[in-house]
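Hi all, posting the design record for the shared folder.

TITLE: backbone redesign
STEP: 1 of 1
STRUCTURE INPUT:
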């Protein structure tokens, strides 16, 4: 496997967050494919229990175990894990207290759900702890099991609290295995080996959430990664034409002449309906383009690397994931 310089050399945990509806899970899946390309082994982790990874890759629901789900471009494997907080807690009880049977008994009477409900910080420690363990894991020869781990994390509004596990468990345990576990997680999450990436659209609300999320992470001392601008539409006309359309609109009569010249409209008096409809479409496209330019300028204030991913004409199917993975690699994000 040949070395390749990227913007995130040395990063082994890629946390992907974003406002709902921005395509966060799709971008996380594409990033995993991009990181695995060329013969690497990557683990894609889901922590919200939505089975989003299974839906994106069009496979059956994932159990609580690591399994191979895709082959990356040029070789390389993507494995996936859907973390179930209850299973993670049973694993935790067995690992630190040697109480496998007792843990199963607690699960049967509902105490596991009760514990994670009254102490939501504990739930976050369990799922981030499982991910951090995968980042640190080595085989019997001392080699890393995974070259990188990608976490499909909670939405932007919750990401700082989710990752700031030491603060979250401060009221639960000051010493002992729970606190030690949280400190281990913090040691991974807050290290240079981690980057928290944001997924956004060129729309006001997602952009503002992204800027707020970046500021909150930096205030908490957590590592900000890149900003993935998803579903980007191309500018279909020269900038001068778009600016003119946004300001005054395009004269349907002028459009009609152009349509007639290329044989798309009959030589009839006045502007045909197709020219009027086209004028409205161009004006709408121009206004949206102007909005998107403004949102790009807003994102620049975050002072983080930005990557643009195209709007997929056929939707986010498996072929689309590979297209996005290629775009990610071409821009140096993986």
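Okay, here is what came back for every position:
SEQUENCE:
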């Amino acid at each position: 496997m040949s070395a390749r310089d990227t913007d995130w050399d040395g990063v082994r945990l890629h946390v992907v967050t974003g406002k709902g509806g921005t395509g966060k899970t799709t971008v996380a899946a594409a990033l995993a494919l991009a990181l695995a390309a060329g013969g690497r082994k990557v683990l894609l982790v889901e922590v919200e229990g939505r089975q989003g990874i299974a839906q994106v890759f069009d496979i059956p629901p994932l159990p609580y175990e690591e399994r191979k789900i895709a082959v990356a471009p040029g070789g390389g494997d993507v494995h996936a894990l859907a973390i179930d907080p209850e299973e993670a807690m049973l694993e935790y009880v067995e690992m630190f207290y040697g109480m496998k049977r007792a843990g199963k008994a607690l699960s049967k009477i509902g105490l596991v759900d009760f514990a994670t409900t009254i102490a939501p910080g504990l739930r976050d420690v369990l799922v981030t702890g499982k991910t951090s363990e995968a980042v640190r894991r080595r085989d019997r020869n001392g080699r890393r099991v995974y070259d990188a781990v990608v976490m499909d994390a909670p939405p932007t509004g919750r990401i700082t609290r989710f990752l700031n596990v030491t603060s979250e468990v401060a009221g639960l345990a000051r010493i002992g295995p729970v606190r030690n576990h949280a400190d281990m997680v913090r040691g991974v999450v807050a290290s240079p080996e981690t980057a928290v990436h944001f997924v956004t659209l060129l729309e006001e609300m997602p952009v503002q959430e992204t800027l707020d999320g970046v500021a909150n992470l930096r205030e908490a001392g957590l590592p900000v990664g890149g900003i993935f601008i998803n579903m980007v539409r191309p500018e279909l006309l020269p900038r001068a034409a778009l600016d003119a359309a946004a300001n005054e609109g395009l004269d349907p009569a002028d459009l009609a002449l152009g349509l007639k010249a290329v044989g798309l409209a009959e030589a009839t008096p006045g502007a045909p309906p197709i020219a009027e409809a086209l004028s409205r479409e161009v004006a709408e496209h121009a206004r949206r383009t102007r909005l998107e330019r403004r949102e790009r300028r807003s994102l620049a204030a975050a002072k983080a690397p930005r990557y643009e991913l195209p709007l997929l004409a056929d939707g986010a199917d498996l072929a689309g994931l590979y297209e996005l993975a290629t775009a990610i690699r071409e821009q140096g994000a993986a």
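COMMENT: The mean pLDDT is 85.
Let me know if anyone wants the other runs.
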